[in-house]
Amino acid sequence: MYVSITGATSNKNVYICRSYRKENGKTSSKIYRKLGKLNDLLEQFSGDYDAMMAWAKLEAQKDTDQYNDNTRNISVSFSRLACIPKDEQRFFNVGYLFLQNIFAELKIDSICRKISKKHKYTYDFNAIITDLVFARILSPSSKLSSYTYCKTLLEPPKYELQNIYRALSVMADESDFIQEELYRNSNFFQPRNKKILYYDCTNYYFEIEQDDDLRKYGKSKENRPNPIVTMGLFMDADGIPLAFDIFPGNQNEQTTLKPLETKVVSDFECSDFIFCSDAGLGSKANRKFNSFGNRAYVITQSLKKMNKEDKSIALNPKQFRKIGSQNFIDISTLDESDSEIYNTIYYKEIPVANGDMDEIVIVTYSPKYKAYQRKICQQQIDRAKKMIDEPGKKRRGKNQNDPARFVKTVAVTNDGEVAENKAYDLDTERISEEEIYDGFYAVITNLEGDVEEILRINKQRWEIEENFRIMKTDFEARPVYVRRDDRIKAHFLICFISLLIYRLLENKLNKKYTCEEILSTLRNMNMTLLSKESGYIPSYTRTKLTDDLHRIFDFRTDYEFISKSEMRSIIKLSKTSK
After folding, report:
1. Per-residue model confidence as pLDDT tens digits over 18-54
2. 425/407 Cα distance (integer angstroms)
3. How high is the pLDDT of residue 397?
4. 3-state secondary structure 79-121
5. pLDDT bucket at 417, cuts 50 / 70 / 90
6. How far apart are CA 297 and CA 295, in angstroms?
7. CB 320 within 8 A of CB 454
8. Which spans in 436-543 are helix H?
């Protein structure tokens, strides 16, 4: 309620008015109580207008509290004989409201308005892109299923299914622009930490037999004999995705870096950063590309692929140090049963000359990491022994973690002649060769200075791997239910935006909850509509996480009853950037 002064200049009255919503949905107001004539009230306050208004507002607050007390208990009548209306939706998800608030902060509606000036379409492009992201996070499936799911949101789609497929082509055309604008706007939401940029690639397979311009036969991460596409992804130092691109599945991953990084440097104005990636993307060309200007790099280095001389120095147990100490240690003399030693990381620096590039390889040794590798290796050896005992043809090990690599073929002789049947045995020589590297790890860099900081930078690479896991597992980025190249690119843009929205939400929650906890909570935050005339009741469990969501986003959906007018206000709040 609020104070209103109306009437002629010499005969004004002071009222308390109450706002309400009419049946047609429009808002209006009516007089709740008359406080008196303005001139009479001013006399009571010795002509002090501000004092009179302060008193009037206090009276309005009292009336508001009393009105709320009188209407707080809601009575809803039900009939045991009346059926619910046919085809009426009564179950709605409200978890998307928190995601919608982040959309508002990122000003995606503004981005879509800019795009609309370049393309001629009549559908609501902003509604389509936001709904597809909601569906990808809350109920990942095909575009048809996503459209059906969005009908269970409090704000069902007002566009048609065919509009989605037309919008996908626009998304593909404007993918770079959307990423650039999202990055700029996200800096207002949360300043981006671009001092360190992480890059990695993964691929997605398609259950088809014939490849095309984009979906090509290549080396699949899942070892699937299907055409694939490759995704390259940049991430900032806070684990938030920065930019991505899609490449043909047969393209060498190392060649995906330069075009995407060039776009990041020019369009995102990121020119001063440390590039971090794994050994598979750390070719000499990529390292050299990140040696210009104010860029530097920290990249995983394979000890097995180092030249013989450098490898010998790296694995030599002498001249290691503890971080923070200048004293040399011979790690072969360590008592690794000692708890302190077991949990300590030792390192040595090896300068290497690679043509015109001066680099340093930092080799680390960890007794704890050694024990972990030995445990994993023993499990693989046990599986290899089972394979030897099993009848049938033995397969060859496909990769460095395949237990079949420890199985070797042994020639069987019979009176000096080689028998036709083959025998199999454990390859102890291969096991011994691999044990040499247990506990060791290395990175190559052109940075000088704090070794601990360099190792910390590399250690954070796990977050980009987690980003891929979330997209593949939690957002079910595949299977991809579209075929055209432009729509495939748009599909992965939706996955990228979904990941960005999720990571920003995770940061808002101070990383207190796991991905599974957050997604499960949002997906189960449903409301039941009692009747069109009354309102909603929550149909989910209130938890510490839901309390944190309501506190952070400054609206609540967990009251025992929420009227339809109150729910409209909540929806409006969720679309307002703070």
Report:
1. 887 776 667 788 888 889 888 888 888 888 988 999 9
2. 6
3. 64
4. CCCCCCCCCCCCEEECCHHHHHHHHHHHCHHHHHHHHHCCCCC
5. low
6. 7
7. no
8. 451-459, 462-469, 485-508, 515-524
Minimal CA–CA distance to 494: which of 280, 246, 278? 246
- 71 CA to centre of own chain: 42
pLDDT at 197: 96
Q: Average pLDDT for residues 147-157, to the nearest whole number?
A: 93
- DSSP letters, 287-339, are HHHTTSTT-EEEEE--STTS-HHHHHHHH-SSSBEETT----B-GGG--TTSH
Using 50, 70 and 90 to split pLDDT, how confident is the model at 404?
A: confident
What tens digit of pLDDT does each residue of 68-91 get? 765 666 677 777 888 888 888 899
Pairing of strands 413-414, 407-410: unpaired
Q: At what angle do helices 175-189 and 96-106 cross, to 10 degrees?
A: 100
Residue 441 CB partners (closer than 8 Å, separation 6+): 363, 364, 365, 366, 369
Q: Which amino acid is at 264?
A: V
Q: With contact defined as beta carbons under 8 Å apart, do 361 and 350 qualify? A: yes
CB 335 within 8 A of CB 367: no
For residue 449, what pLDDT is reported?
81
Phi and psi, residue 477, nearest 5°: -60, -25
Return all residues near 432 (Cβ < 8 A) that are at least 6 apart.
none
- The SS3 of residue 206 is coil
C-beta separation of 116 from 125 below 8 A: yes
**The predicted structure's pLDDT at residue 381:** 93
Q: What is the DSSP letter of 157?
A: -
Reference 12, options 30, 34, 31; nearest CA is 34
Please give the full DSSP string across 368-427, using - where no structure is assigned.
Answer: HHHHHHHHHHHHHHHHHHHHHHS-SPPPPP-STT-GGGGEEEE--EETTEE-SS-EEEE-
What is the residue type of 345? Answer: I
125: nearest Cα among 108, 137, 112, 143: 112
Helices of type H across 107-256:
108-116, 125-138, 143-150, 161-173, 175-189
Per-chain mean pLDDT for the chain:
90
Residue 541 has pLDDT above 70, yes or no: yes
Q: Which amino acid is at 171?
A: M
Output DSSP code: residue 395: P
96 class by beta-carbon count within 10 Å (0-12 exposed, 13-18 middle, 19+ buried) = buried
Tokens linked to 389: 């005992």
Per-residue pLDDT, 255: 93
